[in-house]
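>> received
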Amino acid sequence: MMRVTHCDRRASVFSMEEVGPMEGWCQTSYRVCLNARICDCGLFQYLHYPCRHALAACATASIEWGNLVDPVYKMASVFKVYEMEFLPIPDEKMWPTGYGARLKPNPIMQQKAMGRPVSTQLQNEMDVVERTEKRCGLCRREGRTRQG
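>> returned
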């Protein structure tokens, strides 16, 4: 739950408290500056996308939050990437010869490609299974099988 405690609409600066049930009640306060696109949580600056505190500030001041989204996330920017023509990759035979060091994989670091994964569980005396002789599927006597 978010509660705005201070609102300066001219400077677009908001202070708010976040109250949430996480192992009891914890209360944390944040300061959001919409003009500078800054929030104390750091997500607004890091992602260039409004965090939940910025969205709460926008809701309080009736500000359209879409204007705070960085242009890189807008569809016009995505379409701009695909405006240029992509040339197909030529056949491998037409590639120029590579020069420089050839890298070889370390055989010790390679993993097995097939088979069951190796268990990393540490076994103790509880994991020991006592082996019993096989029983016949029909008469359930030990040492016999259905065939003979």
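>> The chain has a mean pLDDT of 82.
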